[in-house]
Amino acid sequence: MPAVPGFGDRMMTYSRANPSPRYDELVGFYKQMHAEGTLEQNKALSAAETFTGMSLLPHITTIKSLIDKFGIRTVLDYGAGKAKFYSEPLFPSADGTRKVDLRTFWGVDEIRLYDPGYEPLSKLPLGETFDAVICTDVMEHIPEQDMDWVIDELYGFARKIIYVCIATYPAGKAFPNGENVHVTLKNVRWWVEKFENRRVALGTKVDYFMLVFAENNDPKPILVTSAGN
Predict the structure, then answer these.
(1) 93 within a domain of the structure (yes/no)
(2) Which residues constitute the domain of residue 152?
(3) 73, 109 in Cβ contact below 8 A?
(4) Do 36 and 47 touch, CB atoms closer than 8 A?
(5) Is the residue at 78 inside a domain?
(6) Distance between CA atoms of 86 and 101, rounded to whole angstroms?
(7) Looking at the domain assignment, is residue 146 inside a domain?
(8) Alpha carbons 12 and 26: distance in angstroms, whole number
(9) Would the pLDDT of 11 be above 60?
(10) Cβ atoms within 10 A of the Cβ of 35, count?
(11) Which of 113, 125, 106, 209 is CA-nearest to residue 164?
(12) In this predicted model, what pLDDT tens digit does every residue of 99-145 receive, in sequence order?
């Protein structure tokens, strides 16, 4: 009987300790792009301009509202890129008299940053937990066969909430082999079922807040939450 392409891969159970070959391949591509730069819509980007973490910026105030609502004191940014905007004084202080960094703007005690493709931030905080885990413009970059263990990892790091934003359209960037970097493009229902199923399977009380974009700069992204409000 001839082999069915991808069948064995779908049957395999992957994990952090045993990710799929596809996952390892993509992490290798990200390391290369972080170090060498890339193309975005046919425009050359230097290494410094590649995966800066700017996709976080549209979510700053929404995350702030969740931080205030849930009493968040510690945050993990999972898939932070180069996290360029965390250390810059870009955000208004509480009294509006000056610009402050993101930790001060959010009013939290600690922000930890992780990205497997960027060497300075590639150390996973194993054994630690955080009040909130944020994950912006990341999930669609994960191979489908690794999705369960990555989502489980998000829940495992979170004590109170997870905030994710997900794109359902191709990206403007491609890997060095020419493939689009958004490798898992699914509709809202698929993502909700995936996060909800893993939540139930883990028996966790952590709530998720999921913002799904149907197009670049979508003016009306869909918000789905397990919190019920």
Answers:
(1) yes
(2) 20-225
(3) yes
(4) yes
(5) yes
(6) 6
(7) yes
(8) 18
(9) no
(10) 12
(11) 209
(12) 999 999 999 999 999 999 999 999 999 999 999 999 999 999 999 99
The full length of the chain comes to 229
How many CB atoms within 10 Å of residue 175?
17
**Residues 213, 18: Cα–Cα separation, whole Å:** 30
Rounded-to-integer distance, Cα 41 and Cα 168, Å = 18
For the chain, give the longest Cα–Cα distance: 72
Task: Retrieve residue 37's tokens.
Answer: 């730069």
Q: Which of 218, 187, 199, 196 is nearest to 55 (CA)?
A: 218
**Average pLDDT over all residues of the chain:** 93
pLDDT tens per residue across span 178-187: 999 999 999 9
The tally of domains found in the chain comes to 1
What is the C-alpha separation between 223 and 72, in angstroms, rounded? 20
- Closest Cα to residue 24, out of 110, 190, 121, 146? 146
- Output the six-digit token pair for 13: 């159970």
Report how far residue 126's alpha carbon sits from residue 138's, in angstroms, rounded to the nearest whole number: 19
10: in domain: no
